[in-house]
Amino acid sequence: MEWGGSRRAQTRVATIARHISPAPCSASNPFMQVSNQMNDNGGIQIKGDVRDALERGLPVVALESTIISHGMPYPQNFETAKEVEAIVRESGAVPATIAILDGVPCIGLEEDELRKLAQLGKRAIKTSRRDIAYVIAKKMTGATTVSATMFFAAKVGINVFVTGGIGGVHREGETTMDVSSDLTELGRTAVTVVCAGVKSILDIPRTLEYLETQGVTVVGYGTDEFPAFFTPRSGCKAPSRVDTPEECAAITGTSYVALLTAYLLIELTVSFMNGILFFIF
Ligand SMILES: O=c1[nH]cc([C@@H]2O[C@H](COP(=O)(O)O)[C@@H](O)[C@H]2O)c(=O)[nH]1
Q1: Which residue is catalytic, options 64, 185, 225, 267?
Q2: Prediction ipTM score
Q3: Is 90 a catalytic residue?
Q4: Which pLDDT score, from 0 to 100, does residue 278 have?
Q5: Could you tell me which CATH class the domain 1-159 is placed in?
């Protein structure tokens, strides 16, 4: 016979799970239904192929847009964005580049929208989680950073997000308090972020400390070292390591099953970038 307290505890855990777990990718996904309604109301807009994949439970990979607007000049940024989307497609997943266009959060961009964003460059608002409400309310065009991209990906049930480098703790951050909101988002939003670490201009040891404080699972893929975006060598050790896609899947599965708020950040060296899509599950 089951102990009543245990049953109550299980119910509480299930309730918590509904709040913190990413929405499942299916037509019955309540987030999708909300998104559909929001779409009708001029809210979140999901591109056709992305919507179709989410409804059918097929793999979708979120991509950020600040790297397009602020990371490179036009037209290299446009070409690179298209190339990254093509790599995702070749690997059997649907790419969903996320941005806010004229106040509308868009999950997946048409080619002309991608070009518009690339041409706008730094005139697009660099939009982190803090800025989302303002950019939408003012009907502005915002390029989403890692934190804002994770926010929208989780809202529509996308569980994997691929980018170059994430933000981190800036040097002298101990006095300036300049810590990227990417790090706090990683601690609160259950989206697996596949990236090449942080740039060496940031304070990597403090970035790792902050990720630990936020409860973020940081895993090196095929490396013991935390990569520094342009180079696999930072001199800082990654807290843990996996070597196969199956190990990655097991860690992600464990995080969800155990309902931990320790979400997964997989760090890759740049040379592994073409291999990242093996992580889609
Ligand atoms: O090497 C780079 N890392 C990160 C970014 C972008 O900058 C954001 C972090 O900005 P901040 O440090 O202001 O939080 C990241 O999420 C990403 O969008 C970038 O352009 N270049």
Answers
A1: 64
A2: 0.97
A3: no
A4: 30
A5: alpha beta
